[in-house]
Specification:
Helices cover 14% and strands 35% of the residues. The protein is mostly beta strands and 429 residues long.
Length: 429
């Protein structure tokens, strides 16, 4: 079921340290039928966050999706010379999702799947899957069987089934198929029918739609947003080298409803934060600090780059029941912690007194939630700006700002200076 391209053009795949994936074949449990393509991806993310992946459950879930062309047509490309592999989603290290565009009379090579499990849902047109076995005497390939894959058909294969080729045999109609590979793989073996030594092939993507797709419905918001936080033991993880690695790691840690605070903190601490990786997002303002959205996550978190010009600071504020991680990328900031005003302090309009102040230097990571208290963050330097990377879980649109002189509070709408490097213009209604 894999689709294949020699790595001569297109976007080369990056190798990642993958999570172990265990597959079982059990009865199908209950699930909510996806109503659109976005919900398909959200549901798959949830299914593949489990320790053991039920093959029958994934097949049934894909089979339940009633294909609508308007859902996916903006995320597939076609090429006159070869079929295309269009990356839609990179799951939590356990799977990826792509749309494959087959022009008329295009076919893959005969190939294996590098021990990956492969699910395919036909979205448009018709394809032929030819399965091969190797004749042990002649070392040539023999056709084992052929399948016609009509629109809405769901297919599944792994290397124990044999080798295969996928082809669009139509001379007048294109075809589109949805592919899930678990775990994702970066290379496979290509075979010729008349035998001979297989050829090692690096996999490439024709187009990357993962950023565009993640914006479609605020980052694939799940039906169940509730996240439970605890402080557990830190397990091994791949150190992020790029901002894309940071996003992928956070997608993994926030793929379940149980998040380990220490794990996320250790992961953020391990990111060295090469300026070349984040400077395109770092847009400052002369009059106020700026919040620049990098990624909307999976509905359970978002990732924001905050730029602090000289002597700029936030108000004293809460976090609307969100958990907040902050990584210093450049310069230094001061974090001042306050207790919540008591009823007595409110009635007497007592001034809010700081209980602790911490200097956050480059490379450090801070964490806060509303049970810890309120805080103010600021850049006290008169000569240097500062940049911090923030993770908020869950994302929030409103918070409370507090007056230090009397403890009074007001609701504030949270806004962005830029989204995905593009300036946001807010208009009065």
């Amino acid at each position: 079921m894999a689709t294949l391209g020699i790595a001569q053009s297109g976007n080369p795949l990056q190798s990642n340290e993958l999570s172990a994936v265990h597959f079982t074949e059990e009865g199908v449990g209950e699930f909510r039928k996806p109503e659109n393509f976005t919900e398909v991806v959200s549901g798959l993310t949830k299914l593949f966050s489990e320790k053991n992946i039920n093959i029958n459950h994934v097949k049934a879930y894909l089979n339940s999706y009633d294909v609508k062309k308007e859902d996916w047509q903006n995320f597939v490309t076609f090429d006159d010379n070869k079929y295309t592999r269009n990356l839609i989603w990179e799951g939590n290290g356990k799977f990826n999702i792509m749309l494959v565009g087959w022009n008329k009379n295009q076919a893959s090579s005969i190939h294996d799947h590098s021990k990956s499990h492969c699910f395919m849902k036909m979205l448009d047109g018709k394809l032929t899957e030819t399965v091969y076995q190797i004749n042990k005497e002649s070392c040539k390939l023999e056709t084992k069987r052929k399948y016609q894959l009509e629109k809405n058909t769901v297919a599944y294969t792994n290397d124990s089934f044999g080798l295969h080729r996928i082809s669009n045999d139509s001379a007048n109609q294109q075809a589109v198929s949805l592919h899930i590979y678990s775990p994702p793989f970066q290379s496979c073996q290509q075979f010729e029918e008349d035998g001979g030594k297989p050829k090692h092939c690096e996999m490439t993507y024709t187009a990357l739609f993962k950023e565009q797709f993640s914006r479609l419905e605020r980052g694939l918001v799940m039906r169940d947003h509730k996240v439970n936080f605890s402080e557990g033991t830190v397990s091994e993880f791949a150190t992020p080298q790029t901002m894309s690695d940071v996003v992928d790691g956070l997608m993994h840690f926030f793929s379940t409803n149980d998040v380990n605070i220490n794990q996320v903190r250790a992961f953020m601490e391990s990111y060295e934060g090469d300026k070349n990786q984040w400077q395109d997002y770092a847009l400052f303002d002369q009059y106020k600090y700026t919040r620049n959205l990098i990624h909307e996550g999976n509905g359970k978190f978002n990732l924001i780059l905050v730029c602090w010009n000289k002597t700029q600071s936030s108000s004293i504020h809460d976090h609307s029941n969100s958990h907040c991680f902050m990584k210093m990328l450049d310069g230094s900031l001061s974090e001042t912690l306050y207790n919540w005003p008591t009823d007595e302090e409110k009635s007497s309009n007592a001034a809010m007194m700081p209980i602790r102040s911490v200097q956050l230097k480059k490379g450090s990571v801070a964490y806060i939630n509303d049970s810890i208290g309120l805080h103010r963050v600021g850049n006290k330097s008169e000569v240097q700006g500062a940049v911090s990377l923030h993770v908020y879980s869950p994302p929030f649109q409103m918070c409370q700002s507090f007056n230090e002189k009397n403890g009074g509070k007001m609701n504030c709408t949270v806004t962005y200076h830029t989204k995905f490097c593009e300036k946001v213009n807010y208009c009065r209604s």
